[in-house]
Amino acid sequence: MRAAWQLAISNLLRRKTRTGLLIASVMLCAMLICAVACAMASLTRGLDDRIKATVGGADVKIKHVGGASFDAGLLATVEAWPNVELAIPRATETLALVHRRIAGTVGATGAAGDAAVGPELRESVIGIGIIADREARTRSLELETTTGKAGGAPLGRFPVAVGEITIDVVTAKKLAASVGDTLIAELFSGEVPLKVVGVVRQPPLGAIFERMESFTTVEQLSLLADKPGRIGEIDVILTAGTDPLAFVEQHKGTLDKGLTLQATAKITSGLDKNLQSQQIGFVLASVLAFVASAFIITTGLTTAVGERARELAVIRCLGGFRWQLAVSQLVVGAVIGGAGGLLGMPLGVLASFILVQLFPEQLPGGFALSWLGVVLALVGSTISGLLGAMFPAFLATRVSPLEGLTVRSKRAKPWQIIAVLIGGILALSVTVSILTLVSDGGTVFWLYVFLGVPCLLTGWFLISVPTLVAMNAAVSPLLGKVLGLPSGLLQRSIGLTPFRHGFTAGAMMLGLAMMVSIWTNGGSILRDWLLALQIPDGFVQGINMRETTRQRIAAVPGVASTCAITLQAVETDAFGIRGLSTYKTSFVAFEPQSFFDMTKVTWIEPAIAAEQQQAIEKLKIGSAVIIAREFKVARGLGVGDKLTLKHEGKSHTFSIVGVVTSPGLDIVSKFYDVGEGYVDQALSSVFGSRDDLIARFGNDAINLVQLKLAPDADAKKVFSEIAKIRGGGILSAGSAVEIKARITEFISGSLLVASLVAIGAMVIACFAVANLIIAAVATRQYEFGVLRAVGAFKGTLARLILGEAVIIGLVACVLGIGMGMQAAWGGQRMYEVVIGLVLAVRPPVWPMVFGCVAVMAITLAAAVPSAMSLLRRQPRELLGGMKG
Amino acid sequence: MIRCSAVCKSYRMGGQSIAALQGVDLVIDRPGFYGIMGASGSGKSTLLHLLAGLDQPDSGTLSVSGIALHSQTERDLTLFRRHKIGIIFQQFNLIPTLTAQENVELPGVLANQSLATLRVRSTELLTSLGVAHRLTHRPDSMSGGEQQRVAIARALLFRPGVVLADEPTGNLDSASSKKLWALLAEVAATHQLTIVMVTHEPAAAVHCSRVFILKDGVVSGSFETEGLDASGVATRYQQLVA
User: Fold this and answer.
1) How far, in Å, CA of A6 to CA of B106, rounded?
2) A832: how many CB neighbours lie within 10 A of its CB?
3) Helix spans in A308-370 (H)
4) Any CB–CB contact under 8 A between B16 and chain A?
């Protein structure tokens, strides 16, 4: 063992540059993984804080299934239940607040006669009605301080009487209001002045969710909402030792239909499940990253074994066992991997720490260290080093003392090229087979992740060799002429070591493959799904909107018709992967005839118009739903099948009477979401009547009002008028054009960020490629010396190295595009089986071009140092490489 | 020490079978400095490789220091190379990443011997061979002659009974070569070793006590070199190969 260790360490220390380059590539990989893990942990802490701030310290919660209000008399009933220590009522409505800053007007800040201080400011906020002293027992609402920092005197107080309001810091900023100012709440029926008595901090992540909140008393809010004697939820703190779940079981049956009683732990369990899924996804992605890193190490160390064949043969001659040579290689791999992990891990932690300091609003929970990320970075790096060293270790054991001494380089045999081609095709066939022959979605997913993707990586890596042989035959003669090299020199030079050159190209292909697949799938999602949604003309979204609200909207000039819609997240087993993550579905409830009259949908089933009308009639009758196409794609459901929907312990089986393309109401609601959507992710939709939803799940709240505009209506003007409607639960309004523009902006931004990751992968590979090119030059040092000795100019050698780099880069481009497109196809299949999306795979031309340019530039950059080094060295020095 | 009887060995090269050795009979039963001469392609290096346990004969028997090499397993041959013989190559074949001292100690490290013991032995050998000043130097900072002395020291680490040298002066100038031949002769005498050197130079063979001639894969004869100079050796050689 000592011998193996000594040989390994002396080898690593003597070849510092190349050792450093390999360690650098592993280090960057470990740094990326650790940084992402810590960033995710920091975000999770912020989410946890938000959940605690919004869910609070209560043990159980009573609320309406659709967020509607209910009789405040329930409070007394709940307080009378055994084991209840405290019941805390709360109401939630939208408020339209105005700050008039012109002197002499009602609510003006300045006194009569004062000069004008500014224009009128208006904002819609979430109004929350509380009983302040009870609220403090369950939620940590912090008042802002006079200094803006912790430890300062609180800025005001919470409201205790009618006519008072406490606003949050963002509202204060947007309305230019502070303690003592008067704001006006605009209602349908008139205006109500409210005096600002305090300013409160936003709950964590409030900035991300763009929620402005303001607090009044429960009584005040119910008056503002014109719902006297109504509240929205009751938090309950139980006496010590009371089991919340048993309490829920005991009392939930006594509540009116539509009201739910839920242990708060269950509310947060949805978030926990999503976070667990994210962690599993993160671990899988990290494993793949380290597998790619192992490939890079394999290529580097295999080249080194080839270079050191004579050295290894000498050790065999001197009595070294095969296993000692193998262990020496494994030690090299472990040291490279371990060193990369030890260096990369703290850098990743530091990068994440800096990120948290730079974006405190998006990451309000502060920096959180992810031990999973730390362990993954350290252990994963070391294992990738060991894995990467296994093939070189095997090669080292194959070194024959005689052959290693007598032959300086062995030409690759044709059967070896054919063997790797066959091996590569077989590996890729495994991936293709999984995606085409396996029908069960869950099985496809897990097989693809654990077998398909590794086979994809391995297959393209192996195919790099025959691809290089082909590229060499096709391009090298012409390239050699262009570079002014002696005829055949470039082609022969590459042809002597196709494995080394091929695997080097393989190391470079990964970043380009990532970019191609990301842009292909991202572009498909945007083009084939999101922008293809037949989103209606416009929407108005709010909390607890009423029929009067809908009527006011319908009265706006240019609005041809309106339809009140309720959105309810329900559980199905249609989407997701068991063991990883399942997704809820949106039940979109409306008055059937008016909805289908005003909404453009494409019927998948039934195809005949008369039968489609019959389907609509069945919705009116009840126990019937129309499903989105994704259900058919993912689960093969169609007309005549049954679908069971569940929510909060209630379930009902519906008959499927139609299949349509989704108008994207679930997507729309996410863009205007006021709910805690990150707790329960809902995908796709089923469509039914509001009567059915009320009957089965008790939800009669109106969340959306869908609009159809008159053909000659000016959309901008219409929405401008709608924005002037204050009160009635309206929070926001938007058009289809605006929604699609926001979708495009979001997706495009995400793709650009993902491209940075791909570029990062190319940079990581650059270190590996530089190492390989340096190793290749060192191995052929004597040959270069002979070339110089017989009259080759030093520029010839440099151009030879650069020519080889061009060929490597071209092969990397071909491989990267091929692997990227195959990965994109795999991604498309995953979308199909997991969430029922059918996407077309279309090559993204400009990202491919950009990616190829980046690959060529980086490969040439990696070769430049070696080329420059050859320019500086004298022939005698190169020939001296024979010494020893 | 060395006994070969009817040793045959052939190789496949470019689809053809080449008979390198066609029944070699050779006996060396006393310590001394011996040479093997022959024309290019006569099988000299092949014979040396077989004697070193780097390959095995197709037929015949072959024993070195009492060990029948023709019937050893690969593991046994490895241990044989480590402990029973020393090998000196034409191209020195020092490990470039190790110092001179570490190169000498390498067989001992492979055998898991104590570092302290190895250090004493390697220092003693390098000093006796006149390269003590290069203990901590790597091969790329030594001359060819110095490298070859380090290689000799490495070969002598375990005090083997037999040392095999394959054209050890092939990469040296004539002055260094002369010194090295004289050194090998001295080492053989001092340490009572059997050193077998493959060479094609009569000037090298002069330093040997006996020279064996290899022609067309067989030992065609041998002669003692006492009283002969280089031209005398060349004449005797020509007579035996004619």
Assistant:
1) 10
2) 18
3) 309-317, 322-358
4) no
∠ CA A106-A109-A111, rounded to 5° = 80
Q: How many CA within 13 A on the CB side of residue A713?
A: 21
**Distance between alpha carbon A169 and the CA centroid of its chain, in Å?**
30
Q: Tokens at residue A191, please? A: 């205006």
Q: Which residue has the higher pLDDT, A837 or B28?
A: B28
3-state secondary structure at position A424: helix
Beta strands in chain B (DSSP E): 2-13, 16-28, 32-38, 59-64, 67-68, 85-88, 162-166, 194-198, 210-215, 218-224
CA A752 to CA A857: how far, in whole Å? 20
Q: Give me the sign of the Cα torsion angle A871, A875, A877, A883.
A: positive
DSSP string, A593-638: HHHHHH----EEE--SHHHHHHHHHHHHHSSEEEEEHHHHHHH---
- The rounded distance, in Å, linking the Cα atoms of A723 and A740 is 19
pLDDT in tens, A528-537: 877 777 777 8
Q: Strand, helix or coil at B99?
A: coil
Alpha carbons B94 and B107: distance in angstroms, whole number: 12
* Positions in chain A whose pLDDT score sits under 50: 107, 109-116, 674-679, 882-884
The dihedral over CA atoms of B139, B140, B143, B148, expressed in degrees to the nearest 10, equals: 30
Can you tell me the distance from the alpha carbon of A648 to that of A258, in angstroms, rounded to the nearest whole number? 10
Are A13 and B87 a contacting pair at CB < 8 A?
Answer: no
CB-CB under 8 Å, B106 with A317: no
Alpha-carbon gap, residue A750 to A214, rounded angstroms: 33
Q: Is B8 on the interface with A (CB under 8 A)?
A: no
CA dist., res. B182 & res. B185, Å (int): 5
Q: Work out the end-to-end distance of chain B between its first and last CA atoms, rounded to an integer number of angstroms.
A: 29
Q: How far apart are CA A281 and CA A751, in angstroms?
A: 19
Contacts of B98 in chain A (CB under 8 A): 10
> Which of B12, B69, B92, B93 is most worth mutating to test chain A (most A CB atoms within 10 A of its CB)?
B93
Distance CA A540, CA A527 (A): 25
Q: Where are the alpha helices (DSSP H) in A622-688?
A: 629-635, 665-671
Could you give the angle at which helices A736-779 and A498-524 cross, rounded to 10 degrees? 180
The DSSP letter of residue B200 is S
Tell me, what amino acid is at B145?
A: G
DSSP state of B134: G
Reduce the DSSP state of residue A263 to 3 states and report it: strand
Q: What is the chain B residue with the closest CA to A310?
A: B93
Which residue type occupies B142?
M
Q: Residue B37 and residue B241: Cα distance in Å, rounded?
A: 10
B199-220 pLDDT per residue, tens: 988 889 999 999 999 988 899 8
CA distance B227 to chain A (A): 36
Q: Does B91 touch chain A (CB under 8 A)?
A: yes
Query: For A545, which DSSP code?
Result: E
Q: Check CB contact under 8 Å for A321 and B106.
A: no
ipTM over 0.90: no
Peptide bond into A606 cis (omega under 30): yes
Interface test with B, best of A12, A18, A318 (most B CBs within 10 A): A318
User: Which residues are paired to A715 by β-bridges?
Assistant: none
* Phi then psi dihedrals of residue A655, to 5 deg: -90, 140
B40 touches chain A (CB under 8 A): no
Which sign does the torsion angle of CA A257, A262, A268, A272 carry?
negative
- Compute φ and ψ for B102, nearest 5 degrees: -65, -35
> In the structure encoding, which two tokens stand for residue B173, read together?
């100038």
Distance CA A250, CA A247 (A): 5
Each residue's pLDDT tens digit, A408-422: 555 678 898 999 999
Which residues lie across from A643 on neighbouring strands? Answer: A654
